[in-house]
Design a protein that fits this description.
alpha/beta; TIM Barrel; 21% strand; globular
């Protein structure tokens, strides 16, 4: 089984270069100001153009959390994105509306704390192009972000599940545990952010290369 990888939360040129050169299928830019990984549209546009110059097939993804139309328009006017990642409490109706507004592919994130949470993916089958399953932070976690908290969930909850959409596994993935995560979940695409950082928002190119090498070995 071939497994591909998305490196999310990229906010500087060395990290982007490491992701593209290492063979990432997707790179993610965060447009959620509370995140230490957040970018302005202009900064993201500069990084996105680097992908073009690299001449490699990499899907540029924008991560949003319950975005309003003003933010979406400001980003889309400047940043050449192919995929929108919706990481908030967006409804199926809002997902469909954003897809129509932007003309881009849309990925809806389902945050998982228990098996019942996975069932919510069914609500988005008819409106999304991708699904992502990420860890739901506990209510006791102070200053938790919608994602990128270095938390994982029970990967076995995804085993044997089938959807008519491609999907990604996220949440606390590192070079050391990604093989086990894929084995238990059956994921064919994985996503990491905190797992390739020295500190929140500070990507380590060596860790990016190590993660992508571990994925390629699968």
């Amino acid at each position: 089984m071939t497994v591909s990888a998305k490196i999310c939360g990229i906010n500087d040129a060395p990290a982007l270069s490491a992701a593209v050169e290492g063979g990432a299928s997707h790179v993610g830019f965060v447009f959620y100001p509370p995140s230490p990984r957040a970018l302005t549209p202009d900064a993201a546009a500069t990084l996105a153009r680097m992908v073009d110059r690299a001449g490699r097939r990499v899907t540029r993804t924008g991560l949003f959390v319950d975005p309003d139309d003003e933010l979406i328009d400001a980003v889309m006017d400047r940043v050449p994105l192919e995929l929108l990642q919706l990481h908030g409490n967006e409804t199926p109706e809002r997902v469909a509306a954003l897809k129509r507004r932007t003309g881009r592919l849309v990925m809806k994130v389902v945050r998982v704390g228990a098996a019942a949470d996975i069932d919510r993916a069914a609500d988005f089958i008819d409106v999304a192009d991708w699904l992502m399953f990420d860890a739901l932070p506990p209510k006791s976690m102070a200053l938790a972000l919608p994602g990128g908290n270095a938390l994982s969930f029970d990967w076995r909850l995804l085993a044997g599940r089938d959807w008519p959409l491609p999907w990604m596994l996220a949440g606390g993935l590192t070079a050391e545990n990604v093989a086990e995560a894929v084995r238990l979940s059956g994921a064919q695409t994985v996503d990491t952010s905190s797992g390739v950082e020295d500190s929140p928002g500070k990507k380590n190119p060596a860790l990016i290369h190590a993660f992508l090498a571990a994925v390629a070995a699968l």
